[in-house]
Amino acid sequence: MGSAKKSSNTARQARIAEMRRAEEARDRRNRILTITLSTVVVAGLVVGGVFLVRSQSDDSSGDTASDAKTSGKFVTGEDGVLTWKGDLGRNHVTKKVSYPVEPPVGGDHNPVWMNCDGDVYTKPLNNENAVHSLEHGAVWVTYTDAAPKADVDKLAAKVKKTPYSLMSPDEKQKDPIVLSAWGHQRTVTGADDPNVDKFFETFVQGRQTPEPGAACTNGLSK
What we know:
By secondary structure, the chain is an alpha/beta fold. The protein has helices at 2-60, 127-135, 149-160, 194-203, and strands spanning 66-67, 71-76, 82-87, 97-98, 117-120, 139-143, 165-169, 177-181, 184-187. It folds into two domains: 1-61; 66-203, Glutaredoxin, CATH 3.40.30.
């Protein structure tokens, strides 16, 4: 009987030893797999980083302005709103862009947008950043020195309380006050022109928006 008990204990210990060896083998395989995967991930990050740096270098090389990859023309609607009929590029570029209209209503643009959460700027903006704001569904109010100060102040007050809008001076435009959205634009006679409210109601996050709901914060603020 004692011999049988001893034999049973020996067998149990042998099974335990075998289980431990199997567990150790699994641990070794898992460690090897983890190290291999980590190596692959790190290598991928290195390659990706090199590609990104090269890509950014290619994008930013040279000082020549690129075109906006925009073709078409404005068509005037019965409501007086100009609608761009044609293609509006949406590529991200780091160069200056030559837009066919001033202010632009779309086209290739900078990867970083201007903050457009009711932001009023007192200095002209880079078109490339403002166009990105239009892509997010913002209405952009621009004005020249010919616009009466009272109108500028009223429009600024409206913009400040309207998310997805921004305002800035633009001496390169033809008319004193211009409202722009992606693919659309119109002039207004002043802050009390009823077309101001109509334009905002139609185009702030309107159907024309290529990227509805995209951020109007965490961009450039000046």
